[in-house]
Fold this protein.
Amino acid sequence: MKLKDQFRFVRQNMKKNRTRVSMTILATAMGCAFLIVLSSVGFGFQKSIVKDITERQVVTAIDVHGKQSMKQGFTPVTDKDIEAFEKMKNVKAVTRRMMLQQNTKYYLKDHQIDTQTIVADFPSEMKAGFKLSSGHLPKKPDEIVVGYDFATNLASKNAKPEELYDKRGVLKDQYRYTGELVGQKVELPVKQNENGKQIEKVFTFTITGIGVKPTKKWLEDRNAYISNDRLKEIEAFTGTPKGMLKEQNNPEPPGPKVEGVVYDEVKVYATNMEAVKNIDQQLKDKNYETYSVLNELKEVNLVFLVVKAGLIFIGTIAILIASIGIYNTMTMAVTERAPDIGIMKAIGANPKTIKRIFLLESSYIGLIGALIGTVVSYIISYTVNLALPLIIKNAFGENAPSNFTFSDIPVSLPLICIVICYVVTIISGLRPAQRATRVDVLKAMRREM
Amino acid sequence: MITVKNVSHDFEIGKKGRATIIPVLRDINFSVNRGEILTIVGRSGSGKSTLLNLISGFIRPREGGIWINEEQVSKLNEAQFADFRIKNLGFIFQSFQLIPSMTAFQNIELPLIIKGMAEKERRDKTEEMLKKVGLSEYQDHYPGELSGGQQQRVSIARALIVNPPIILADEPTGSLDSETEEDLLTFIKQLNQDLGITFLIITHDDKVARIGHRTIELSDGRITEGELV
C-alpha cells in the first residue's frame, strides 16, 4: 500500500471518531504546551542572565590580573608580558590602563568635575575599539580625551552642593556646562604631602577629543584619559608611582616597592569569540590569573543546562500522561475497527501495513498535538512576558528588571518537544498497532468455524 | 491448481491443560483443476467452512499440506500468505464482508489500494468493474444503502478487481432471495466460461452445487462422495 493511501486511511479513520480524537489531540497539546512553557522559563532566565553578563563586558576581552607562581607568588603584569601577549595568535589588541592614585578634580572656567583619571595607551585602545564622537586623539602630553558624560557632569562651582542635584541624583540643567568641550583647557590640581605639609601643582590640559556614548543605557563615561608622558610629569611632581599620595610625616611612598610599571587593568582582546577560549587557555597555562565573560558564560550555561534538562524532564511527564490517552484512543480504535481489519487481512493486506497505518494514526495525533501545543506555548510566552511586568508593578509596586525575559522559546525547544512527543506517541501506539496485526480474521468477520 | 493432501484438522475447546479436542477434518485429499468449478457440499458442522478457511490461509492445518499453483501455501507465514492472497485469490462471503464506512466504489477499490496501484489506474479499473456488475449508479452508496443482491455484487466486484485466477466462495447465495441467487449463479458460470476463473464454492444448497463441474460431499469431516486423489 502506498504511503499516500495509508495517510488517506488514517485521515478517514480519524474523521470517524472526531470527538475522541480531538480530545486526545487536546490532551497532547496541553502536555506539549506545559513542557514548552515550563522549560521556556529556564531558557528565559538564562537568556536574561547571559544578556546581562555580555552587556557588562565585551565578550572577546580577557582580563589578565597578574601571574601566580610558586617561587615569586603573585606578580603584576609587566610591559614584557604585554609584549608577549601582543605576539600571541588571534590577539587583536592588548590595552593597559593605570589609574591616577588620588581624587582628581578638573576645573573648566567656573565649572568642576570629580572624576577618575585614566592613563591609557591610546594606540592599543583604538585597536581594541575605543572610538571618539568628536575631536582627535592626544598628540602632545598636555592633551587629553574625556568620556562622553564628562560635560554633563561638569557642575557650577558657584552653586551650593545641596542644590546641584535633583531627587534622582542627576545634575540640574541650570548648573551644567553647556559650552563646547573640544579645544577647551581644563586644570587638574595634583596634591602631595611633603614634610607634613600639603603641596599642590596645577596641570593644564587641552581637551582634544570626546569618547563615544557608552552602548549601554545605564553606563556612564565621565573619565579623563591622559597619556603616559603626562603621568610621568605628575609622578615627577609627586615623587611616587601613579601620583600616589604619601602619608603625612612619611617621606616614603605607601605600599610595597615594585620595580617597573604596574598596570591596574590589562585586557587582551581576541580577534573573534572562537579564539577567546584558546587564548585564555594559553594564558592560564602560563600561570596568569585571567577572567573572561565566556568563562563565566560557560559556567552559567552549564548550570542552566541542568535546570533546563530538569524542566524538560518534568514537562515530559505531562506528555507521558497524555500518551495514556493516545494508548486508550488507539486501543479503542483497534477494537472498533477489528472487523474492518479482518476484512483487509482477508483480502490480502499485509500485517506490517496494518501496523504502519495504526502507528501513523498515533503519530498523527501526537504531531498535531505537538504543533497546536507549540502555537499555544508561543502565545502564552508572549502574553506572560507582556503581562508579568504589569502584574509585578501593580501587585508589588515595583518595576520589573528592564530587558528581563521571563519566558523564552528558542526554536530548539519546540523541536525537542516534537521529538519527545513523536517518540512517546509511537511507543504508546505500538502496542495497539501490534494488537491490530494479531486480529483474527475469522473472529473479526464473525465467521463460524 | 489447488491440491489438498492428507489434511486433518481439529479444534481445542476450553482452557489449556483441560481442553477438549474436537476433530473437524480427517485425511482430506482432493484437487481442483484450472478453469473448474468445484462445489463442496455438506450439512452444517461437516467441516466444509473449515476446509475453505484452511485453503484461504485463515487457519493452518494440523496435518497435511495445501498447494495452490504448485506453491505449498500451508507453509507460508502470515505476511507471505497476505501477499499470495492479493495476487491469487478472490473471496466471496455469505455475509458479503463489506466495510460499512466505505462506499461501494471504495470497497471495490480496496484490494487495488492494498496492492499499491496508482490512483488513476485503479480509479479507471474500479469504474470499469462497477459497470461490469451493473452498479455504476450506486458507486457512492454505502453498503447499508444497498440491497443484499447489490452488496453481493459489490463483494464479487471486489474479488474480481485484481483478476485472481481462483475465487473461493463461502455460501455465496446464503443471504440472497431466489431471483438474485439465480442471477449470481449465472454470473459465476459466465465468469468461469469467459475468463477461465477457477471457483471453489462451499454450499449446502443443491441449486448452487449443481453449477459445479464436480461436487465433493463432506460428512463428519471426511469426504464421502466425489473424492479425488
Q: What stands out?
A: Chain B touches chain A at residues 11, 24, 49-50, 53, 56, 58-59, 78-79, 82-87, 89, 91, 93, 95, 97-99, 101, 110-111, 113-116, 119, 158, 162, 170 (CB under 8 Å).
